[in-house]
Amino acid sequence: MQPETAIDTWREWNADLRCRPVITGPLGGGRSNRSFLLAAGDVKMVLRINSRDTLLPEAKRSQEAAIWHAASDNGIAPPLLHIDSQNSFLVSAFIDNHLPPEPTRKESVLEQAFGLLERCHGLDVDAPPIDYAAHIEQYWKMIEMRPKLSTPALEDIRQPMYTVVGELFDSGAQMGLCHHDPVVANFVGCPECLYLIDWEYAAHGFVLLDYAALSIEWGVDDSVMVRKTGLDPELLALTKRLYYYLCGLWEAISRN
Predict the structure, then answer these.
(1) What is the dihedral of CA 203, 70, 19, 35, to 10 degrees?
(2) Closest by alpha carbon to 50, among 26, 72, 32, 36?
(3) Digit-coded pLDDT (tens) for 105-117
(4) Whether 62 contacts 214, CB under 8 Å
(5) CATH T-level assignment (fold) for domain 103-254
(6) How confident is the model at residue 256 (pLDDT cuts 50, 70, 90)?
(7) Tell me: the pLDDT tens digits for 54-95?
(8) Which class is 3-93 in CATH?
(9) What residue ranges do the domains of the chain occupy?
């Protein structure tokens, strides 16, 4: 979908707009979708054009919207203003980003990130449980459709990763609503008030996976993660292996 086609529906948005929004520029940070900054008078919004095949297995855009609304109601995410009936785009409120150049090094920002994830995990919302093995299989189906895509390193540990998933389930690791993509770019705001954006991977899953991702993406030492969360160090290390693998699969299918 072209951005202008999405903007044509502006009167349907829950934004109390008095004029048609205009695109003021593209927004970076998204790993799969295209995002644009819109302005309608003094009102700023984000238009996200959804990419295909980016959702988790069995997930639906309507579920992403329900999760986003719940997160917004609890001050975790910016308000979601519109999602079209075809699930091809969504519009959310724009949050001015005033994070420092290296936000992961600022203690107040890190504390905010931990707090947002903890509140996310406590949300009581109807969301699908993620089947991590099926998620891996979904990636492999996409890889195998591209015969020229060579991934021997990923193939070598394909079966061991299913074992890792089984070990995490057998461990009784805490489950909850997880964001599943807490990269630095998905936190916006200021050190005193952060928000989480882009909820398309959100589902009920291992709380550990959000913290493993935060540890890797934010460069947080395992000892700090364990001290702040009380996580089992061995389970954290195991979950980081799974996160690295999922990222490797995503990178593989994104190369072509």
Answers:
(1) -20
(2) 32
(3) 888 899 999 999 9
(4) no
(5) Aminoglycoside 3'-phosphotransferase; Chain: A, domain 2 (3.90.1200)
(6) low
(7) 656 656 777 888 899 999 999 999 999 998 888 789 999 999
(8) alpha beta
(9) 3-93, 103-254
